[in-house]
Amino acid sequence: MIWVFLTLLLLSGGLTLFNPTQLIYWLADGTWMICCVIARIVPQKLAVYMAILALIASLTTVWQARALTHGPTYHKRFWLSLVILIGLINLLIVPSYMASRTLWGSILFWFGIVWLTFLLLMATYFSLTSYHLRHQATKSRLIIVLGAQVTVRGLSRTLKRRLDRVLAVYNTETVPPRIIVSGGQGIDEPQSEAHAMAAYLIQHGVLADHIQLEDHATSTQENFKFSRHLLPSTVPSRTAFATSNYHVTRSKLLAHNSGFKTIGVLAAPTSAISLFSATLRELVALTYYYRYYLAAIWGVAGALIALNLVYPISF
Q1: Which ranges carry the DUF218 domain (predicted)?
Q2: pTM value?
Q3: Which residue range is the domain that position 232 belongs to?
Q4: Among 174, 112, 176, 166, which Cα is nearest to 144's?
Q5: pLDDT in tens, 52-69
């Protein structure tokens, strides 16, 4: 069985080379496979597989998280928090090793699978983010800027960093790209994010004719959906979107769902003080996005564990 598992894992990894975004689905399928073999493997052997997966996912998460860090301050504000979180998740998986054909053992085992799935999602998130940050867009002809908070004091630091990333590209291209600034006005914002972004870009040398406003979006999905309505039926080649580095994975996914099949990425850095909380929010958002898929995995796992409790099967 272990060779079957390794073969499917390598096959899934190879397929992601053609479309890295699908890595989330492949890892979820791997978790699904683990659930499906519960009725055929004794708990002790399955616990070993879970421990191996948890170790691989933990090391992958820490290794790929390097792409988001810049400078020594991140070591205490980001790395320490990340390692503590991963450690806690692994500790929550540990009780699953006590699984036996008892009611409480089966419940613990199910929770172990739930937390293992979340750990795999973390590893996937950081892996994809690292991939996108290493393959950022070049020679963009159209840039969609995703909005962020605007206060009475002006643009937030997050939004300024995104716009500065766009300005860096705009000022180095021989043919300046067209820019769509996307963001509506929240109840706590003095003006729409799009108007505030346009004013900032114009103030820093971007021609007004090169800027197009989309001032109705209130979410990342709407950023892409409403921006897509401003474009012709065929998306211009070398289109990219600008956002914060922690936000690129989910943004890429939502862009694909809105019809941007080959869109590039322009990522702005995030401050050390907010990076950990920002990435944690992204993980929560991804969990919500895949809630039906995850619910199906956890439901099947629970059903198989319950079945194995009533009708134990082993080698």
Answers
A1: 142-283
A2: 0.82
A3: 142-237
A4: 166
A5: 888 889 999 989 998 898
